[in-house]
Amino acid sequence: MLASLVHTLPQLVPADGEWISFDVVSLGQNFWSATFDGLTFGAIYALVALGYTLVYGVLNLINFAHSEVFIVGCYGVIFTLTALGFGPSAPNLDIWSIVLNLLLAMLVGMAASALTAFLLERLAYRPLRKKNAPRLVFLITAIGASFVIQYLFYLWRTPNPEPAVIMFKPTPIFDVFGTIIDSQQLVIVIAAVIMMIVVDQFIRRSRTGRGIRAVAQDPDTATLMGVNKERIIVTTFVIGGILAGAAALFYVMKIPSGVQYNGGFVLGIKAFAAAVLGGIGNVRGALLGGLLLGLIGNYGQILLGNSQWTDVVAFVVLVLVLLVRPEGILGTSLARSKA
Amino acid sequence: MKNFFSNLSDKWNSLPRPQQWAFLAIIVVLAFLLPVINPPFITTEPGTNFAITCAQMAVYALVAVGLNIVVGYAGLLDLGYVAFFAVGSYVAAMLTSPDSPFLKIPFLWTVPVAMAVTMFFGVILGVPTLRLRGDYLAIVTLGFGEIIRVLATIIPAMRGQVGFQDVGRPPGVAEDGSPLFANSNGLPWYWLTLVVIIIVLLLVGNLERSRVGRSWIAIREDEDAAEIMGVPVFKYKVWAFALGAAVGGLAGALFAGQIGFVNNQKFDVATSVLFLAAVVLGGAGNKVGAIIGGAVVAYIPLRFTEIAPYKYLIFGLALVLLMIFRTHGLLAARQRLLAYGRAAYARLRKKPVDGPVPTELGGTENKGATA
Amino acid sequence: MSTDSVDEAALAEQGVDLEVAEKAAPDRDYKVQVGDPLIQVQNLTVKFGGLTALDNVSFDIKRGEILGLIGPNGAGKTTCFNAMTGVYKPSSGKVLLEGGSIGGMRRHKITQIGLARTFQNIRLFREMTALENVVVGLDARHRTSVLGALVRSPRHIREEKSSIERGIALLEFVGIADHGETLAKNLPYGYQRRLEIARALATDPKVLCLDEPAAGFNPAEKEELMALIRTIRDDGYTVLLIEHDMKLVMGVTDRIVVLEFGKKIADGLPHEIREDPAVIAAYLGVPEDDIA
Amino acid sequence: MTLLELKNVNVFYGRIQAIRDMSFSVEEGEIVSLIGANGAGKTTTMRTISGLLNPGSGSITFQGEEITKVKAHSRVIRGISQAPEGRGIFPGMTVMENLDMGAFGRSDKSGLAADLERVFDLFPRLKERQKQFGGTMSGGEQQMLAIGRALMSSPKLLLLDEPSMGLAPQFIRQIFNIITEINKQGTTILLVEQNANQALARAHRAFVLETGEITQSGTGKELLANPAIKEAYLGVA
Amino acid sequence: SSGGSSSAGGGSGVNIPAITSVDVPKDAVLPKGDGKATCPSTTTIAFGGAETGANAQLGINIYNGVQLAVNQHNEANPGCQVQFKKFDTEGDPNKATGPVTQMVSDQNILGVVGLAFSGESKATGTIFDDKGLVHITPSATNPELTTKGWKTFFRGLGNDAVQGPAAAKFLTDKLQAKKIYVVQDDSDYGIGLGTSTSGALTGGVLAGTEKVTTGQKDFSAVISKIMNAKADAVFYAGYYAEGAPFDQQLVSKGFTGTFVGPDGVKDDQFIKAAGDASSIAYFTCPCIPGELIPSFQSEYKKLTNAEPGTYSIEGYDAATVLLAGIDAGKQNRADLLSWVKSYDKDGLSKHYKWDDKGELQAPTVYGYKVENGKIVPIGAIGK
Ligand SMILES: Nc1ncnc2c1ncn2[C@@H]1O[C@H](COP(=O)(O)OP(=O)(O)OP(=O)(O)O)[C@@H](O)[C@H]1O
Ligand SMILES: Nc1ncnc2c1ncn2[C@@H]1O[C@H](COP(=O)(O)OP(=O)(O)OP(=O)(O)O)[C@@H](O)[C@H]1O
Ligand SMILES: [Mg+2]
Ligand SMILES: [Mg+2]
């Protein structure tokens, strides 16, 4: 019996060697484009990851519904752009009207996401906090809320993806080693990084930021210092929402037809992984984790020749990093980040 | 509702043992008869066959009991538990399905094999990762779950979405000559799973009321303090993982047999998360609660298939509302961690502090001579 | 073991409550000799970044004594404890228990070979009852395997039964038996402290380390605690005590070690320490009557 | 003038009643001590006054205004500050940041530098360790930090829950001197202490709490002289 | 931008005109029958497939077709009011067992249209077979399904083994593609179709193969490979949910070749989601353009307020087969099963006659393209 088991084992490895074949040539050919695309996605992950990190820092809660906060922002962006007359073909607008329209869409996306985050906090989490619910209960509520939001959109928008909305045709900007970096990639990465820096400075320097950190460490004592805990918590959710709304615009730019009722889930998980990779609760960690995860996934996919590998590679790297640095790359949490 | 449940557990605990057993017997009999009675409002028909619903509820309940060991007792947040369920399913499928190149063994033999293999996976996953704290463990387990699913997709021998058909079944034929454990015959599967649940419950109960259960809870409460009090923290974490995994594998094997088909679609993060919801919904740390939670999570979507588009909306709302109104789960009664705790507490309650020590436990003989 | 070999009358004279002592620690040798060093702390140094919290400290704890460890705030007392119980890794130096080094040993092993402690900030298992908390401590000496627990092996049954006997006895010993069924988190502060002591005792330690056990007690309660600590010693345990309350320290310890800025500045009998000018300067700082 | 007044306050933890029908008042400029055994309800009283716990019934007034329903953080802004039992240090903030947090709810920033100076004078150790994380300070150092932080809010009413806990003898006396000093500078103080001798000696008035009820009250001197109290709380020397 | 421009892009280079009508068999059987049928009021036919889930649109297309057939039948036959029941499987093999068991245990159900997908069909075929309940799938195309020895399974359209080679031929002959990249998803369907298509692409025209995942949204890595290979045509074996963003991203990266998708991609949703990029798309489908049959199109639109979708007409035809049997007095399962087995008549979309395994004897594959934001047929492309 054992012998025949052993005999059949090699069947796990396919004959044509597809199991693991490193397509190094392909990686070489596609290296730079993989890098730039990876960075763009990484920037989007990072913005969403911040929402996880901030809420985690303050409430010690994995806000599983954050992926829905993000997807609502995407709907906001799509609806605005459609209303502004954007459609499946890139419009012929001058740069300023494009920028204006994009800003408007971003504002709406941010508002939609922030409002969702706010409502989520008010309707789902606050009642639990009042009752001193254990942490896991928040997690499950988040999951329930996630279902509710998804299926509201499912019922309203059907299970199909929203029609594509194309904002502008990316124009080549740089040529790096034969690979073209286009305006879209540039806009996304730069804008995301700027936003992250602003948030980072806000948490470190502002009074509210100090309040956030205090609540993160000891909510009761923070209250005794005059910190309005409830307001801090809401603020945190809203900041996370605003960033998710920004991410929504970039996501729609990148994948104009990717908005679907359940479209946030996978991205949400990646963003959460990014947050952990960088060190959950750490603002800079989210940026680093997001960019890294974007890059690793893209390289892995090209190297191993199957998009399935994206996740495997990403998670294997995550596990390896955590084994070496159990608290993520930048370890210290929001609570501990120095001023 | 709140009072109803908390009174219930109070009342329950105040009942004498024989009465508790009698009640339990009634409940068990009712549970066995559930699909036969097929109660009108409760039934999931005509959308889905109720016996099959029951069988699936039972599998989920079993899963929840297993996950409860990991999450409820040891406090290890495992978001990839579905991986063990998957491994169990695949073991059963690959050792019985004609689509598999492996040698074939009778279905019932795959059950212990599945448990052994998943236990092995539990240890493999646990040893490197269980030193991580809290939510870092959560993401690593989530990743593990994804990796198992993706491997099932890309390793050709695992047959991806194509899957394995005609997974084996326990022996036995019905009167009309068809197999007793046909995929469409939920009843025997339900009963089998129920029997398994009862056995697992008894065993888990034994663990709970032993140094093992106490160690788990101590780890959950304060890992450092537990270690300093002499609890081999790492060892018991790995045990929790391995035992939880084994139950998950067991459930997976039964599930594979009942469905008769295994492919990679079921084993995603969303399912993992549902399992977790089952545990928390029931009341983390409470094994009876886990059973109810598992059953509820499996039941709600099947109950509302007639209004198909709304079923997950209802499910989500139910989760949120249940958590808000039953914050500590449906059955929040805490676990009892002492094998002879009832007698001990009774003794503490009755006895004036300085009185002589009664020897009703028979643990030590009365020495009589005190200075 | 049987009680025949013990001179009961003599023990009773010493104030040993035999019944409790036997139940709480049936394997203990009651007739302990104060004398040979049980724990030797040798040149222990602990550094945190640039700060040397413990600087080349050496002292012995002798079998059967109550050793006081005192010193101003931040002197390194808790750090010394943590280094002894494996929470911190010392930068250099070592700790010997009965001649064997415990350096590098896993924390639960250290407990199992006989070093138990309480925490300066209470760390009970909050969702467990008082009795269960104590039984977790008792489990350190138990040997039921997971398999044994699963099938309720005879050893499991035996150990469970003795756990309850000993657990109740320990709760009685520290005086909170009638709160045995209360969840630890719901116990008043003082009872939580007692429970911590009971739980530590449950591991049947050779040395019991108490970190400020009287913090938050009023003087009357402190006196009860002093009595309790004496009883513990009389039951055959060795005790290491960190405490700021001089009355308690002077009243209960057999010997005192004084730390300041991570260094040992004195080591002697209570009355010697009380008059030691270095200690007065560094720590006591005030005339006696002002403290009481 | 009456600064703080509790009327028939009852506080519950779930089904457990921790405070029974408690009424007392604190006059402006006083030091009032609460003493009682472990579990008597002292901390519960403090947390109810600072707003971390909501009374099941009864009312609390501060400066003549009803504050029973006012949120804890707003009470801080009105001038009630608490150094909590167990210290409540922010472990991940530095000593300096912890002190800054003390002034979080403070509206007048004018005296801030002077107050910081005063805290550093009282506890030079804090000045030395400005950059150390609160969580790594020793027990006693944390206690100093907690008191220092409470002082940073320059409150009207300062609630101190066992300020001497964990302090070395030389600091204990200093702490009580500081308390008297702060009081002389105009801050009203409600003090919970196990060190009943000192607490009673320094207090203008004091209450004895037993299982959630006030059983005795009087001036500090009176209670100090009361033999029953001596036996129960001061220990027979 | 170097990808497509060097070679003549199929989309721009070759122009295959749209057809505006298909031949409807003159004596096609229609649901209304002769109007004289009688049957017990309990007589029921059922649909099983995804009503919810990400690929629900296919299921919706089908049951609307079935609903239309039942409505027409009942209107015309006052003496035979057939009931119609829907069972939601979410298209998930693991969820299908319960509903299917329920179907087979409801003795009033005489025949079933479904299940819609290959995976779920595989998981439940035995249950139908055990209980002798005839079912005609209007959309499951995995060839394996007819190799299981089930007596009750019938396929109302050509399988992937037919479509794959047809698609290959379409690509090389009609579209004149020189370098074809085959991308398949991880579904049963995508793998089968992808393999059979790339297998049929002989003579060095296969530029490479690539795999993507169900639920994937970002295809940049795949696309950079395609661009580097300078492919002039891409065949995507999968569903529109991934096909649309894939096509869209392909075009936005400068791809100017042709995009060809199978029946799983051929859906209005594809055009909606891919936007302008869909103009380079062609489709292959073993399905007939129901919208070109005016009677069907207008009735369908009246019922659902939407154009007929992929497989609507297959659902309609399959239901018609069952209804015709009921009308002919085959009012128990065994009779209806043998009725289907020996059926040999035209339906609206094609001739229905099955071999002993349950495959259609003469399936056709149609080609489609996108014109002015609409999917239009370009005629039959396979036998
Ligand atoms: N992890 C750490 N990082 C940096 N400094 C530390 C750390 N732990 C302790 N210290 C410092 O080491 C010194 C000794 O601390 P320790 O806790 O041992 O004091 P202690 O003697 O117990 O004082 P107390 O009586 O106040 O509890 C203190 O100054 C403290 O701030
Ligand atoms: N969270 C809680 N849940 C239930 N009961 C509680 C809780 N906190 C305190 N209690 C109970 O309320 C009573 C009063 O406790 P409190 O902490 O106010 O006492 P205290 O006078 O401050 O005692 P100590 O001197 O020990 O600090 C005690 O019986 C205690 O057990
Ligand atoms: Mg200390
Ligand atoms: Mg207190």
From TrEMBL, chain A:
What's the main place this protein lives?
Answer: membrane
* Keywords per UniProt: Amino-acid transport, Cell inner membrane, Cell membrane, Membrane, Transmembrane, Transmembrane helix, Transport
The residue ranges crossing the membrane are 39-62, 69-89, 95-120, 136-156, 176-199, 232-253, 312-335
Q: Which GO terms fall under molecular function for this chain's record? A: L-isoleucine transmembrane transporter activity; L-leucine transmembrane transporter activity; L-phenylalanine transmembrane transporter activity; L-valine transmembrane transporter activity
Question: Where is this gene product found?
Answer: Cell membrane
Membrane-related topology note: Multi-pass membrane protein
GO BP: any one term: D-alanine transmembrane transport
GO cellular component terms attached to this protein's record: plasma membrane
Q: Report the family membership.
A: Belongs to the binding-protein-dependent transport system permease family. LivHM subfamily.
This protein's name: Branched-chain amino acid ABC transporter permease
Automatic annotation (TrEMBL), chain B:
Q: What molecular functions are annotated in GO for this chain?
A: branched-chain amino acid transmembrane transporter activity
Chief location category: membrane
Q: Where in the cell is it found?
A: Cell membrane
Key word Transmembrane helix present:
yes
Cellular component annotations (GO), alphabetically ordered: plasma membrane
Which residues does UniProt assign to the signal peptide?
A: none
List residues traversing the bilayer: 21-38, 107-127, 136-158, 189-207, 238-261, 273-300, 312-333
Which species is listed as the source?
Psychromicrobium lacuslunae
Question: What Pfam family is a match for this entry?
Answer: BPD_transp_2
Q: Does the keyword Nuclease apply?
A: no
Q: How does it sit in the membrane?
A: Multi-pass membrane protein
Which controlled-vocabulary keywords does the entry list?
Cell membrane, Membrane, Transmembrane, Transmembrane helix
Name-wise, this protein is Branched-chain amino acid ABC transporter
TrEMBL record, chain C:
Source domain of life is Bacteria
A GO molecular function assigned to this protein is: L-phenylalanine transmembrane transporter activity
- Which SUPFAM superfamilies did the record assign? P-loop containing nucleoside triphosphate hydrolases
Q: Name the InterPro entries for this protein.
A: AAA+_ATPase, ABC_AA/LPS_Transport, ABC_transporter-like_ATP-bd, BCA_ABC_TP_C, P-loop_NTPase
GO terms for biological process, alphabetical: D-alanine transmembrane transport; L-alanine transport; L-isoleucine import across plasma membrane; L-valine import across plasma membrane
Q: Which residues form the ABC transporter domain?
A: 39-286
Per its UniProt record, what Pfam families does this chain match?
Answer: ABC_tran, BCA_ABC_TP_C
Entry keyword annotation includes ATP-binding: yes
CDD domains per the record? ABC_Mj1267_LivG_branched
Alphabetized, the UniProt keywords read: ATP-binding, Nucleotide-binding, Transport
Keyword Nucleotide-binding on entry:
yes
Question: GO cellular component annotations, sorted alphabetically?
Answer: plasma membrane
Task: Quote the protein name from its UniProt record.
Answer: Branched-chain amino acid ABC transporter ATP-binding protein
Say which species the protein is native to: Psychromicrobium lacuslunae
UniProtKB/TrEMBL annotation, chain D:
Cite the ABC transporter domain residue spans from the record: 4-236
Q: Which PROSITE patterns does this entry report, sorted A to Z?
A: ABC_TRANSPORTER_1, ABC_TRANSPORTER_2
Q: Which family does it belong to?
A: Belongs to the ABC transporter superfamily.
What protein is this chain from? Amino acid ABC transporter ATPase
Recorded hits in InterPro entries, A to Z, give: AAA+_ATPase, ABC_branched_ATPase_LivF/BraG, ABC_transporter-like_ATP-bd, ABC_transporter-like_CS, BCAA_Transport_ATP-bd_LivF, P-loop_NTPase
Matching Pfam families: ABC_tran
- What Gene Ontology molecular-function terms does this entry list? ATP binding; ATP hydrolysis activity; branched-chain amino acid transmembrane transporter activity
- What GO terms in the biological process aspect are recorded for it? L-amino acid transport
Kindly indicate whether the keyword Transport belongs to this entry. Answer: yes
> Has UniProt tagged this entry with the keyword Transport?
yes
Q: Which domain of life is it from?
A: Bacteria
Supply the alphabetized keyword list: Amino-acid transport, ATP-binding, Nucleotide-binding, Transport
- Write down the SMART domains for this protein, in alphabetical order: AAA
